[in-house]
Recover the amino acids of this structure.
């Protein structure tokens, strides 16, 4: 049987990440080295414990380590050399588990090589991390069962897959009710022309397969996820004249979104919520997304969708949730909900981030520290 176009794209991507790229410095654009912002101390420490070879073979466009991870089961799509998996394995603890799946055999070999090293470093009696060679749009073939994970993460990988709807359908299948896909990826401001989508270097560098940003909400709704929740966004600059000319007027951002799979329940009303400060590393405030920051003991009015997510996800134990109008026992402030403030466009958020950086002193503008690539 003749190979399909999708097969050819997979082969090109495998070759790019298995043969062409040997380390982060080999990348030809900054698409996969875009800073995600300041890294929380407990995550920074977890990343510093990862073996050097594993970190050197890491490529990503955001930080995909969400909050409230203790004892969770996490699946990493396109886990590569295992950097994020090994950081997460510390954060979920011995009762949690992290599975990484990647289609590039050489990357999986690097990841498997250091399982014993990391478990010994963390003081774990038995491994809580597994690496699988397989395709992220074919999780069933890799033996991943229905409703088996609390969280699925992906770091700049879904853009490499031709059939993005199939990836999201598979993620929906393997997530438990109340679970979430927390992922960073590259998005385009326009529908990409064929010559960009089929260019081998642009494809390998995460630009050629970038989804038009408005299509994410359409796909999410079709599959059954809640509407995407925008977390962070940063512009990608292509510092390569030949590639820049080919891209033309299209702009790209690396953006992190949350997609929640909620149980089918009745309609939820607007609520008032109070965060109790119980999440490790986020004791004073929880930056949930670009629209909601919950400070400890402060009452925040939230819309129906946010209320449903907080009630039906792993965050439920960390919030006091009451209908609007009911007095809450808190000594903190009060923030009212305004629908017009909801941010969904990653390009507008990236513009706001750039403006904020331009007003900040140089040392405050970057999220990366030293030589650590914290995206």
């Amino acid at each position: 049987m003749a190979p399909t176009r999708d097969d050819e794209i997979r082969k090109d991507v495998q070759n790019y990440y298995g043969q062409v790229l040997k380390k982060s410095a080999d990348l030809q654009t900054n698409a996969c080295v875009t800073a995600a912002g300041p890294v929380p101390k407990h995550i920074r420490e977890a990343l510093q414990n990862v073996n050097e070879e594993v970190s050197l073979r890491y490529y990503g466009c955001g930080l995909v380590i969400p909050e409230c991870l203790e004892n969770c089961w996490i699946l990493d799509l396109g886990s590569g050399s295992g950097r994020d998996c090994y950081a997460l394995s510390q954060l979920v603890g011995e009762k949690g588990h992290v599975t990484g799946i990647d289609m590039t055999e050489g990357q999986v070999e690097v990841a498997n090589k250091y399982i014993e090293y990391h478990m010994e470093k963390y003081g774990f009696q038995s491994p809580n991390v597994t690496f699988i060679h397989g395709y992220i749009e074919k999780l069933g073939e890799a033996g991943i069962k229905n409703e088996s994970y609390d969280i699925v993460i992906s770091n700049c990988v879904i853009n490499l897959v031709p059939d993005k709807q199939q990836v999201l359908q598979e993620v929906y299948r393997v997530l438990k009710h109340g679970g979430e896909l927390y992922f960073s990826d590259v998005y385009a401001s326009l529908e990409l022309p064929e010559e960009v989508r089929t260019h081998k270097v642009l494809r390998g560098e995460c630009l050629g397969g970038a989804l038009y940003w408005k299509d994410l909400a359409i796909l999410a709704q079709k599959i059954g996820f809640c509407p995407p929740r925008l977390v962070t966004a940063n512009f990608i600059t292509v510092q390569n004249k030949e590639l820049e000319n080919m891209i033309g007027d299209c702009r790209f951002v690396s953006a992190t979104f949350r997609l929640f799979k909620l149980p089918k329940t009745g309609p939820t009303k607007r609520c008032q919520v109070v965060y109790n400060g119980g999440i490790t590393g986020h004791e004073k405030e929880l930056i949930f997304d670009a629209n909601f920051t919950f400070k400890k003991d402060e009452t925040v009015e939230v819309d129906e969708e946010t209320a449903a997510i907080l009630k039906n996800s792993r965050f439920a134990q960390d919030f006091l949730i009451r209908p609007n109008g009911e007095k809450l026992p808190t000594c903190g402030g009060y923030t009212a909900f305004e629908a017009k403030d909801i941010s969904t466009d990653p390009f507008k958020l990236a513009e706001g981030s750039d403006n904020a950086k331009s007003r900040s002193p140089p040392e405050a503008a970057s999220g990366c520290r030293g030589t650590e690539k914290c995206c």
In short: The chain has two domains: 5-261, 265-327. Residues 362-375 have pLDDT under 50 and may be disordered.
